Amino acid sequence: MTPLRWSLALACLAALAITSLFIGAVPVSLSGFLTDPDSQQVLIVSRLPRTLAALLAGAALAVTGQIMQILARNRFVEPMTAGAGQSAALGILIASVVFPASAIWAKMGVSALTTLIGSAGLLLLIRPLPPTQPLLVPLVALVYGGVIGAVVTFFAYQGDMMQFLGSWLTGELSGVLQGRYELLWGAAAAAGVTWLIADRITVLSLGENAARGLGLNVALVSGLGLAAISVTTAMVVVTLGAIPFVGLVIPNIIARRMGDNLRRALPVAALSGAGLVLVGDMLGRTLRAPFEIPVASLVGIAGAVVFLALLYSEPRRG
Fold first, then answer.
1. 116-138 pLDDT tens trace
2. SS3 122
3. What parts of the sequence cross the membrane (predicted)?
4. How far is CA 100 from CA 95, 108, 159, 236, in A?
């Protein structure tokens, strides 16, 4: 992207973020923010954290979705639907049952561990699949995620925790307040670290044998990528719940436009993912105001439509 395009994109995102501050069940105006203490409290405690949460989660999910597709060598997978999101929910369930009084960071740690195991299990499961049949990978990933999701649902039902399970598997931002979203800064940081090894991850897209031939430590780079995916997914699920399709649609659009050079593509993916989740949350607050539609529902519908359009369109790079 040229500097002019970057400036325009950042200006649009900033305008959306400012607009988001004044959308909600409690009416707040600019004049009220300047003079009314209650309006200031609403903005600082609720609206600003909610806007930042949408931006951080969207950026992190888009980046880790692109990493996941490189590691899986397939454009039809993303963490939230390929077992990572379900594994994160399993980790939260285990922590809630075994350590019910544990702090949120402890639950996040257990969730990150189960997500790492689940993601590694998927990569091992799809390794033997023939590369000439790329549609087998997303099918196996969906079944794999479905099995883990079924296990989570079974134990949640046995433990009378179905209501909690719904909040983990359906991402929404209505409960985001100051002091309850800060884990997402860690998710964004974990996703941002992948930019430091973006060139090495790009080499992985050539295949493991070619990457080793070029002197790449495949195990180390893959491990770092999986760690970033696990930490990011766990933090997003713990804080907001699962938000699907962000890590699927955005990377596909970016790859068609910019290719597989992650050094260039990851910042654009982060910007696009942040905008997608923020717009979805803003629409969720306005379409049925004063009631809300979960951002996961709106992003899921939009993502499915866009992804189907991508499947039936010719790839174009420029």
1. 888 888 888 888 887 777 778 88
2. helix
3. 48-68, 80-99, 105-126, 135-157, 235-254, 266-287, 293-312
4. 7, 13, 12, 20
pLDDT higher than threshold 70 for residue 1: no
Measure Cα distances from 227 to 77, 90, 156, 204, 233 in Å.
Answer: 17, 17, 26, 16, 10
Give ∠ CA 125-240-256 in degrees, rounded to 5.
55
Q: Measured between alpha carbons, how far is 19 from 58 in angstroms, rounded to an integer?
A: 17
179 phi/psi in degrees, rounded to 5? 95, -5
Torsion over CA: 66, 68, 69, 73 (sign): positive
Residue 133 three-state SS: coil
Beta strands in 82-190 (DSSP E): none
Tokens of 64: 């880790």
Measure the CA–CA gap between 59 and 38, rounded to whole angstroms: 31
Q: What are phi and psi of 260, to 5 degrees?
A: -100, 15
- Could you check whether the bond before residue 290 is cis, i.e. omega within 30 degrees of 0? yes
Give this prediction's pTM. Answer: 0.85
Residue ranges per structural domain of the chain: 44-311
Tell me how far apart the alpha carbons of residues 294 and 131 are, in angstroms, rounded to a whole number.
37
**Architecture field, domain 44-311:** Orthogonal Bundle (1.10)
